[in-house]
Write a structure and sequence with these properties.
The chain has 130 residues and is of the alpha+beta class. 42% of the residues lie in helices and 32% in strands. The chain has one domain. α1 crosses α2. It is globular.
Length: 130
C-alpha cells in the first residue's frame, strides 16, 4: 500500500510542476534564456506550495570514493522528483542521460526534463523513470 501512496504523491507533485510550467510558458513563450525559465519556474513552484531545492549539489559516490565534483540538479521537488530545465533546439539523448544520472545520484525515481524552447510546451516535456 505504501508504494501506491508514493506513486500517487509523485503524480500529484509532477502535476503541480507541469501546471506551473504550462502557466509560465503560456505567458513567456519560447526564446528566452534557460536561467529565465529556471527563475520563473522556481517562483511558480514555490507559489504552488511545493518544497523546492534549487541547484542542488549531487556528489558522485564510487565504492569508498566520494567526489563532490559539481553535479547540480536544477530542482529537486519534495525530495522525490528531479526537474531539469532546458531552453535549446530539442531534447537530445545527452539530456536524457543527464537526468537519468541525476536520478541515480539523488536516489529519486522520477524526473521531468522540460525544454521551454518549443512552440507547444507539451512537445518539450519528457517524464523519466529510473
Amino acid at each position: 500500500m505504501e508504494k501506491k501512496s508514493q506513486i500517487q504523491d509523485i503524480n500529484i507533485i509532477t502535476s503541480k510542476i507541469l501546471d506551473a510550467a504550462f502557466k509560465m510558458h503560456k505567458a513567456l513563450g519560447p526564446g528566452l534564456l534557460e536561467s529565465s525559465y529556471e527563475e520563473c519556474l522556481h517562483y511558480e513552484m514555490n507559489k504552488a506550495g511545493l518544497f523546492v531545492e534549487r541547484q542542488l549539489a549531487l556528489p558522485l559516490v564510487y565504492e569508498e570514493v566520494k567526489l563532490a565534483i559539481g553535479y547540480r540538479v536544477d530542482f529537486r521537488i519534495e525530495r522525490i522528483v528531479i526537474v531539469e530545465v532546458k531552453a535549446c533546439d530539442g531534447i537530445h539523448d545527452v539530456h536524457i542521460a543527464q537526468v537519468l544520472t541525476y536520478l541515480k545520484l539523488s536516489a529519486c525515481r522520477v524526473g521531468l526534463l522540460i525544454n521551454f524552447n518549443t512552440p507547444l510546451l507539451k512537445q518539450g516535456i519528457r517524464r523519466l523513470i529510473l
